Structures are given as structure tokens and as C-alpha cells.
Amino acid sequence: MPLTFAPVDAEAWPLYVVEPEEVEVWCAQQTDDIRRWVEASGFSGALGSALMIPGPGGTPQAALAGYGTARQRARDRFPLAAAAPLLAPGTYRIASGVPDDALAMECLGWLLAGYGFSRYREATPRVPALVPPHRINARRIEIMAEAEALTRDLVNTPAADMGPEALEVAARNLAETFGMKAEVITGDALLTRNFPMIHAVGRAAAQAPRLIDLRWGNSGPLVTLVGKGVCFDTGGLNLKPASSMGLMKKDMGGAANVLGLAHMIMALKLAVRLRVLIPAVENAVSGNSFRPQDILTSRKGLTVEINNTDAEGRLVLADALAYADEEKPDLLISMATLTGAARVALGPDLAPFYTDDESFAIELEQAGRRQADPVWRLPFWEPYEALIEPGIADLDNAPSGGMAGSITAALFLRRFVEQALSYAHFDIYSWQPRPAPGRAKGGLGQGPRAILDALAPALDL
């Protein structure tokens, strides 16, 4: 089902969005019949409540949606989306009750409430149509919904149908849609082209490892997005237990998120040169798996001691980041489902990011609040640099001790970026563990809307 608005001239029932303390005031302004109907129905304005208002002959003439208290709304990114599935089928137009500064995101939440992952069975929620308010940029909101649906679909698809080959197909489909140039380096060609760590991580899998390289645009600042595309992570020879392997189809969430972000950048025709790099691999177990204690030489020339084959995401990202950095981009962004430590620190709802660019950090945090896409800055903490230096090699891919795991991973990646004008790394979860308004259980975009919003001020677009 396309996540789109109804035509602006469509016939629609007015939808009054009402907080609990406003129900009595709203009723006092209505006819006696409507007032008695609302009172008899027990409508309280609670978050996630809805009520159809009958007109002459019993057919609906309007609807109410509960908006809850400010404290209740703070717990949901898209409060209005809680009421949308409860309304009768039809088309609605928001008549009142949503503040102007929340209107765009509430409309996005309404569209996203209609998302369902239907590749294997019909799962489209029953959400009525919405006429976009004239005060929002409706097409921009639809593009955001399209990008989010793309990201969710990719993450939700199991590895049997979303291995490195299928991820390449998805990237090529996006490239074809927007006229991107695509190059893919596959298998042993990774060695001849000097991507040794991507090759080492992916060589044991049935599908060959690859580096997907997409380009779009001919003018403007160069924005390069690097997304971790580990299509399934067994942990390698440091095999994960079953409890940790269950969600590893989502370990390509970084790739899914940068593809969603790229979709938005191109659909909105931002004045940038865009590059997307995705190292696509499966971390599998075979006779030629890379091993603990191996020392790999990266594209950049830095040597890396492997102290845990389950810390493979930073290895494939490192080669891709070094490649991206050689071009001296104006903005380089990496996104990855990289560490469990980030989830311990911030939980599944909040995506940490790292950057040395103070102005970009401020823009990102403000944009995250505006776009209902929260991000939180963590530090590139210099005193921890020693933790990623094992002595026998330049770098350690999995420092012992178990502390500050997200920070040490980010410091590891920063070692491969020297020439980019600005660099930011996002350690995302890309998964909604429980259903919430506008956010079905399953794959989730984390960070792309905040990044999109922050690009214009960061790059003077």
C-alpha cells in the first residue's frame, strides 16, 4: 500500500484532535445532539482514543481523536497515529487541535501507521486516508514515508532473501530509479582492488562479499554515506549464542538506513554530489573463515589484530571509510548496527552519534527533535584511544574489558578518516522491539530524517 496522502480536494470528514482538558470546551461549542453523543460515549480525549460523530440519518459527519496530555505525548513520537487505526474507513481532514510545529510529523506518523511488511503475508494495517493540511510540505512528508518504508522492508527481509546479492539488487534498483551510477566490486576482485578486510570478513559465506558504490549529482558539496551491510552475522568462529543470533538479519541496518537517506536526498533534489558505499557481506563459518588472533592489513595500511570475529562490522566499514576518505568529501557519514554497548547505554529508541564537528552536532540534535528522529551525541573520548592499540598490531578490533564498547568502536573507525572535512558516525539499532504509534514492530529507520534536516545548514545549501 503506498504511503501517500489523499488528494487535497477529496471529500473528507473533519477530524478534531482534542486533549482531555479540552473535551468539555469542545462539546460546549457543538449542538446538543453532538454533546450528548460525546458524553454518552465516554470520550475523554485520552491518547489513542477516537470517536465517530453521527450526522442526520446515522452517517458520520465528523470524528474526534484523543491527543492525551503533554506528558503522555512525550512518550510517543507520533501521538496522533495512535488514533488513526481506530477511525472508521474513509478520508479525514485535520480540522483543529494539532499545533503547527507538530503538524508535519503527526502527518508523517499517520502515513507510517499504514506501513506493514507484506512480503510473506498480507500485513497492511487498516488506516484511513488523510488529506494533507495546506500548512505542510505534503510531498516532502510522502518522500520521508517512502524512504522509511524502503528501510523497514530491507531490514525486515530475512537473510535467505536479503543476502549480499539481494542487497546489491536493492541498491541497483534505487540507482535505476534516480539515475545513479553504480559500480560493484565482488569476490576476489576486492583483493586486487585493495579491500582486504571486506574480503576477509565475507569470504567464508556462500555469497561473495562485495563493495557497492553508487553516485548521483554533478554539483554541490560531496556527501558520502557509508552503511554497514552485514546481511547476517553468525559471529564467525566466535559464534554467537542462539539468543544473540535471532535478530542478525538486521545487521545490514546501516546499509538500509543510508539507502533510505539517499532516497530522500535524491527525491528532494538536494544540491549535493552524493556517494553511497555499502560493504555487503555475510559473516559466516567455513574452512576459510578469518580467525581470532589473525592480523589483517587494511586498505589504509593500518594493521588490525582480530580479537573477536564477532566485531566484524568495523572491519568492513574501515576499508569503505578509507576509500571514501581518499576523495576528501565535504561530509562523510557512517551508519551501522555496530555495538550492543550502544543499546546498553541508550536503549533501542535513541541512536548515538559521534562527531568532532561541533556545529554539525548541534544541528543534528536539534533536527532530531524537529523530525521525531532522536539522536544523542556521545564523545570520541581521547583517553580511550589506548584501548584499541594492542601492541602487536596498529589496532585491536575488540578491546578486552567490556567497557565503553560503542566509544572504542567509534574511535576505531575514526582512525580511517583523515581527509574528510566533516565526519559523523551513527551506532544505530534499526529495530522497533514493540509496536508503537507509527512504528510497527520490526525494522526501523534511525537517524536519516535528522541527518536530512541538518544537511542544509551544515553545508550552506
UniProtKB/TrEMBL annotation:
Species assigned in the record: Thetidibacter halocola
Family: Belongs to the peptidase M17 family.
Name of the featured protein: Leucyl aminopeptidase family protein
Classification via Pfam families: Peptidase_M17 (PF00883), Peptidase_M17_N_1 (PF21337)
Keyword Hydrolase: yes
InterPro entries: Leucine_aapep/pepB (IPR011356), Macro_dom-like (IPR043472), Peptidase_M17_C (IPR000819), Peptidase_M17_N_1 (IPR048816)
Keyword Manganese appears in the UniProt entry: yes
Domain Cytosol aminopeptidase: residue ranges: 308-315
CDD domains: Peptidase_M17 (cd00433)
GO cellular component: cytoplasm
PANTHER family: LEUCINE AMINOPEPTIDASE-RELATED (PTHR11963), PEPTIDASE B (PTHR11963:SF20)
Biological-process GO terms, alphabetical: proteolysis
Keywords assigned: Aminopeptidase, Hydrolase, Manganese, Protease
SUPFAM superfamilies, A to Z: Zn-dependent exopeptidases (SSF53187)
GO molecular function: manganese ion binding; metalloaminopeptidase activity
